[in-house]
Description:
By secondary structure, the chain is of the alpha/beta class. It is built from ten helices and nine strands. It starts with 9 loop residues before the first strand and ends in a 6-residue tail after the last helix.
Amino acid sequence: MLDLELTNAVVAITGGASGIGAACAEAACAQGAAVIILDRDRVGGTALAERLAQAGHAALFVATDVANDAAMATAMTAAGTWRGCIDSLICCAGISGPVGKPVTEIRDADWQSVLAVNLGGLFHTSKYALPLLERSAVATLVIIASDSSYLAYPGMAAYSASKGGALMLTRALAVDHPRVRVNCLCPSVVDTPMSRRDLGLTGDEIARAGFPVIASERIATHALFLASPVSSPINGTSLVVDFGFMARPAFPQPEFADAPPEGSRVAHKEATGLADN
């Protein structure tokens, strides 16, 4: 296992009771970090913290709601009291909201709910976490966004708008708080309870969905890398995790009349822009 230099680091994780957040908590503990699990799911968060503690790890659960400013102020006070500072914050809390609906069919309450959690939650969390992070010499903040920060999937306007905001907030935080490295992770479909519910698929079915799906444990590894001192030169940017699909054209490959034989050395040089002049 790669040493991410997180031994004894304090890592706080919002949405840490399940999905990507829980995977991040387990991955952080495996690296020797102490974890603070922040979630509104009291049952799931308590159970995870107890399981990690029984395995010999330092874990604290704090019940909170990222959409509530006062709740996050209280939660971060509790987090800071536990170990005195936070070395890394990984923001995983999020909801998908209405899916499969165009804007004209989205209720205002549903729109506001998505923005309150996915964007407002990042604001409230970072607002109260940053003073704790700035006590650390190796402070990092990682925002779990989505490839929807760049791409608009049909029927996901609210989610896409919130994730686009998350990407821009990442950059703004990096500029405003130079003592904290802030980066954004933008995966495509990840195998989580939320994704299964939105797609109407079970665990076995999502693995055979007809498109590549990322394991939450894999995303946790990427998030921990960005959170660790190992990635110290990386700041104020985003990492898209989508199997390279965003690099491909949206339209079918055209048939060129003078195209060289597929696989030939000339074809490769022309495709890569390295053809001889």
